[in-house]
Amino acid sequence: MTTRRRTPRRDLTAELSDIAQRVVDLARRAGADDAEVLVRDGAELTVKVRLGEPELVQQAGSRALGLRVFKDRRAATTYTSDLRPDALAAFTRDTVALAELSEPDDLNRLPDPGELARDVPDLELFDPSATAIDAAEALRRAKAAEKAAFAYDRRVTNSDGATWSRNVGAVAFATSGGFCGAYRGSYASLYVEPVCDDEGGKKRNGYWWTASRFVAQLDDPEYVGTVAAQRTVAQLGARKVDTCEVPVVFEPEAGRAIPGLLFSVANGAAFYRKASYLIGREGTPVASPLVTIVDDPLIPRAPGSRPFDGDGLPTRRNTIVRDGVLDTVLCDVYSARKLGRASTGSAGRGVGGNPAPTTSNLILCAGEGDRDTIVAATDRGLYVTSMMGFGFNPVTGDFSRGAAGFWIEGGEIAFPVAEVTISANFDDLLRRIDRVGADVDTRSSTQVPTFRVSHMTVAGK
Amino acid sequence: MTEPALRTTLPRAPFSPGGDHEIDARIAEKLLAIALRDGGDYADLYFEYRIGADYVLEDERIKTVGRGVSVGLGVRVVKGDATGYAYTEDLSFDRMAQAARTAGQIAAGGGSHRTFRIEAFAVPNRYSVQSLSLEAPPADKLALLRAADRAARAYDPRIVKVDVSFVEQLKEILVVTSDGRMTRDVLPMVRFGVHTVAEEGSKRQSGRSGGGGRYGLEYFDAPNHTPEWHGREAARIAIAMLDARDAPAGEFEVVLGPADSGILLHEAVGHGLEADFNRKKTSNYSDAIGQQVASPLCTVVDDGTIDHARGSINVDDEGNASRSNVLIENGVLVGYMHDRISARHFGVDPTGNGRRQSFRHMPLPRMTNTSLLPGEHSPEEILRSVKFGVYAKRFSGGQVNISNGDFVFSLTEGYLIEDGRLTAPLKGVNLIGNGPDALRKVTMVGNDYELSDGMWTCGKDGQSVPVGVGTPTVKISKITVGGTQTG
Predict the structure, then answer these.
(1) In the predicted model, what is the mean pLDDT of chain A?
(2) What order do you get walking across the sheet with B369-372 strand by strand?
(3) Where residue B111 falls among pLDDT bands split at 50, 70, 90?
(4) CATH 3.30.2290.10 residue spans of chain B
(5) Which superfamily does CATH assign the domain made up of B25-242 to?
(6) Which of B249, B168, B260, B156 has the alpha carbon at shortest distance from B205?
(7) Which of B404, B413, B437, B461 is the best mutation test for A, with the most CBs of A within 10 A?
(8) Which of residues 254-273 of A touch B (CB under 8 A)?
(9) What is the ipTM for the molecules in this complex?
């Protein structure tokens, strides 16, 4: 039920599992028909350096428990950070009483036992050496990164600092239906944000980052600082362009938002709530044939991997869009039942909430070429490196966001662009994808290569 | 339905008088002494107890009821410009002392024994409520959800989906500072929201309405706060937007409606005037005090003392009383919003803007309720003055880049203005502008100031806090509208 790795605190998962199972029993004794308990334990270290001096050292551990009970097909969901035995007993009784306030729903029941995960695969999600980095070492790395940013170019005149951060933790999930699983995880990152002075009193900030579950797999601080500085300086003199309709090339840093938005309309909860323009489109083309989007929770060491889902089901690789056709809509148990189908093992669950469909590692699969070949193949257009705002209507697919990046002229990067918006209906945007690169950025749990949309409205002057 | 055997009297915060872990001046003094043992300049203790509940109605049925409780202590130690921070959810003395020691390590190498005199510091109450929502019978709250659902469905047969949610929360805090101040506050909050989907043939649209603030259930007494009102309003928007057409693309004259458009102030100037960015000189408003940064028609105020407003606080999360602070007066920048660190840096009094998401977070300069004060024109006059432009009524949110002032905000209900009249509804669209540039282009300010009904949550450095925004009708002579129609 737990990972095979030998770690200094290998009893942590057992300890959390014990708590989870104890609370399941308490809930049953308090009158619940069924109960599910999630216990999460985490310890963080965050340090920030600015202008070479420490600005913040934050260290702490925390633990919390989430409970969902079913009684007569009624449900209540509660959480607490007070895990003292007496407090947990009262908390459990209150939760069962609370369930009586909701109304019966036949779908309020545990997954069928046959659906549950039988074992917990070791996906190498925990780096035992993550905690070997102490505050002093973290400060040293953050300082080195910021120093490299200043050293790269004299026009880097200021800094919003360099932050080194790591979290280690564990999660245990137990249900009265017979599931109990637990695993540990770790995550470390370094983020650097230099600032330059531009004309007219404007400032330009840029950033770069590295992140991994394994500390040894982080990029060198000097490299991160240097890239951050390059990206900041490159924006000096950014300007608006005239309103036009042109090809738009998405850098992975900006483009990873696109599969995220697709998921927001290709999941069971959005479907049964009628909050998706994709309802009724399964099995039909919803994107260019170049587009294949998968959700894969089973990639060893990847940031979004998980050995079981928030309902206790085994996780699996799902193909959301295959060669442009909408294939699988991600579901948890509840939304799947609501739609009369089977869960895809995609439930996410936080301590404080109900399970809901979530992505694990969401990937726009690699095509051909890379940033350089795609830009070179674009006579005139916009290369987008960042987007701002929340302009997306899931019900209609209307998409409009602030954007910044570079103008492409004659297949080359010409000058930096800021303060424009890019717009298209999302359905058109996905169908107009006419280039997908092979340069997939794997740092994040949403992974995309460079890709191009044949035309979008760029609103500027 | 039978009334369940649920406790209706709330447990008190364990650190309050009579609680399991009562914190008095003597214990606080001990903890502060430990925090400063390594030589820190300043320390504070932030105790927080939070209890919340939420109710969700989906498909004409109360789907779930939730409740959560959290409690903890955050200890901060400041040495020069550096901060050490630690927290614990366990209020046993040993664990609190351990957090104090961990935070104090930022000042490693110093070392002195200090003693403190902690005294209670009283602040006026801006949000006394008649009865706490959390103490009211749950059936009353379920009735609110059902009333909104019925009103939305009754508005129009094309409404095919209604979701309603109600969230109530009570937060109790105790802030103790090493300069001798001990302050308590109890902060209520309610938030009600309705989401609808309308369908007509193959067309589908959604609408939202909601509000709240630091109220008890009396929030719902006002005519435009009733559950029925919010239900009808969410339905109205979804139906109106069924006929929405593509928005134009490019620079246009834009009229911002009252209340919700205050999000423009929040993004365009508010964040840039938070003093941490200016202390670090990373804001486009750094070193600009005394300069004309907006049209002379603009006076911008951040006011944490508005009765019952979502962003109001009696005391900030570092123990300073909340105030009303003028940021921009007739277009001239007169002040920033400070936390303790920036106030010391600039040599000014704290402004009561040191806020944090929870005991797990250190305080930062944050907005409370940010408003543009009213001007002279009637909203009709302003509208009549526009030949062709966009009228912005409701927004889903916004974002700003602090260093260059570029901001966006997302319009969810907007209309075309043609010859001084509202004509077609427009599909959802983003507006993008630059803070100082947009405020210089404010050419008319209305006399119809309104505070937005409390729905806004502001994010900064990964911390979310509730805020308020407000504005009268405003005309901006030129701003980029991110539609798709280039013709």
Answers:
(1) 94
(2) B332-333, B324-329, B300-303, B369-372, B468-471, B450-451
(3) low
(4) 25-242
(5) PmbA/TldD superfamily (3.30.2290.10)
(6) B156
(7) B404
(8) 273
(9) 0.90
